[in-house]
Write a structure and sequence with these properties.
226 residues; Rossmann fold; DNA polymerase, domain 1; 2 domains; six-stranded parallel beta sheet; two-stranded antiparallel sheet; 10 helices; globular; HAD-like_hydrolase_sf; HAD-like_sf
């Protein structure tokens, strides 16, 4: 499911985590339900599904109105997600680790990004033994706090790694519309949607995907064509 393409060969590859390289299997929704229950609120799963990929604190601000309730909800969500990770409910997607290794073997710099907090991202990386799998890992707080759909994490990865001379030498891959918007807004040449997570091909393409892949495992072969 790849498209024709033109442009510079990507030197920096920015990958999402949950749903793209890490199996979600409903963990985000389960953690959200737990958090809402602990706050005595009704969980709005439809909104959570629509905003998959967005910074979690931004989602809670929209849902809970006040900053105090949003911060409480975010804290409860982080605790609930950590509990699920600690219980063993966290695994890499098939072929993800191999794809990251292959991209680096091709001479590309790889950054892993997330909508979670740094604490939760580190817990996931530790649970998978992925602390050294990528050249850089970023959470929204590491890039000014806005997260997706803003391009901040992608551009921060470029500034931190200095892996490319231009935004046209960046590839972005993710499973949500917010990942696609972030990639498009950053100016990346490749904005690849993967079908292992939250959103379908139609949603990904409408958000600006240049390519749609069955999984991130197909990304090294795609980029090798550039």
């Amino acid at each position: 499911m790849t498209d024709t393409h033109s442009g510079a060969s990507p030197k920096l590859v920015v990958l999402d985590m949950a749903g793209t390289t890490v199996a979600d299997d409903g963990l985000v929704e389960r953690a959200f339900v737990r958090a809402a229950e602990r706050l005595g609120a009704e969980p709005d799963l439809d909104y959570v599904r629509r905003t998959m990929g967005e910074s979690k604190i931004s989602v809670f601000r929209a849902l809970f109105g006040t900053e105090e309730r949003a911060q409480r909800a975010n804290t409860e969500f982080e605790h609930a997600y950590a509990e699920l990770v600690d219980s063993g409910a966290c695994a890499p997607l098939p072929g993800a680790a191999e794809a990251i290794a292959a991209l680096r073997e091709q001479g590309r710099t790889v950054a892993l990004t997330t909508g979670f907090s740094r604490t939760t991202q580190d817990a996931i990386l530790a649970a998978l033994g992925w602390q050294d799998i990528a050249d850089l890992t970023l959470s929204p707080a590491d890039a000014g706090g806005r997260g997706r759909p803003y391009p901040d994490m992608v551009l921060t990865a470029l500034l931190r790694t200095r892996a490319a001379d231009s935004v046209r030498e960046i590839a972005v891959a993710g499973d949500t519309a917010y990942d696609m918007l972030s990639g498009v807004r950053s100016g990346a040449t490749v904005v690849a949607g993967v079908l292992t997570g939250a959103h379908d091909e139609k949603t990904l393409r409408e958000a600006g995907a240049t390519h749609v892949l069955d999984s991130v495992a197909a990304l090294p072969a795609l980029l090798a064509e550039f």
